[in-house]
Batch of 3 targets.
Target 1
Amino acid sequence: MSFKKNFVIQTILILVSYLILFLVDTFVHPVEDSLWTLLIFVYIGQLIFYKLDLGYRDNKEKD
């Protein structure tokens, strides 16, 4: 599976987890802020890793 396709699947999973967390937070029981913060950091970390990996692949292909 290509890296870009894998990235899209991971992004969709993170967005679905945001939606589930939001629904639970709104209708069932308030969720701690630490869970929201954790998901935000996971998503930002994934974006940074994706950009670094693309830069590495571009440099590798030029050699």
Note: The CA atoms of residues 54 and 60 lie 10 Å apart.
Target 2
Amino acid sequence: MICLHGQGSTYYEHSARIEITVPDSATNLKKLCNDDTNILNSRKVIKKFIVNLKNIEQYRKAEIHLNKQAATLNLIFYDWNTRPTMQSYLLENMILDYYNTTTSCSEFVDIEIPNVLSHISSAVYNPVNDPKGIQGI
């Protein structure tokens, strides 16, 4: 999971996009804005991720492509852990529980993630539904 610090940035939700305005004091983010504006440029943010992903061992040999507004990683080889008995299975079920009980959600991931994390922060203290019956509750 990757989290970004907004450094005092604000956002405006238009009908089809979100515009993030960066304050002058956020010098690192200002470098990622459209020229001569304080509006964050998503393509510059993605390119910054791509540059830094090349420094991560698992992605060093990956082919990294820019596809519209997202970075896609094509790993040559990496053993992904798919055993549902691992800790990620618990997290997945907490997230499923959240979406089974919520009445609405944002189509924008960056707005939705804080809601999910807030749910997880309290769900860890309660029994978690296991729809596959692998680990019990």
Note: The chain has two domains: 10-74, 81-137.
Target 3
Amino acid sequence: MRELSAVQAQVAEMRQNIALGEQNTLDLEAQLRYATSDEYVVQMARGELGYIQEGDEVYILLDEPAARLGSPPAEPPAVVEEDSFRPLDWAWWQSLLQQIRE
């Protein structure tokens, strides 16, 4: 009788594990559908990569008050740090493509 009870407990635990696995599968499938949707691609391109679409109005905010008053722009830094990625930085993209080709 004890063995039957132990086996029934194992069966119940396995059924619970199966139900959890099925729910996990459904969650992952929903995430996959969203990650491959146009909505997600646009969100990532705009939010994370800073891309714009045709027709967007682009505003460049200047941090330095002197730049707002019409003084000449400051000299760019001589050395660009490796972690200073800016999505619209043409020199960075050229450097990346050159490294890939090598």
Note: The two ends are 71 Å apart (CA to CA).
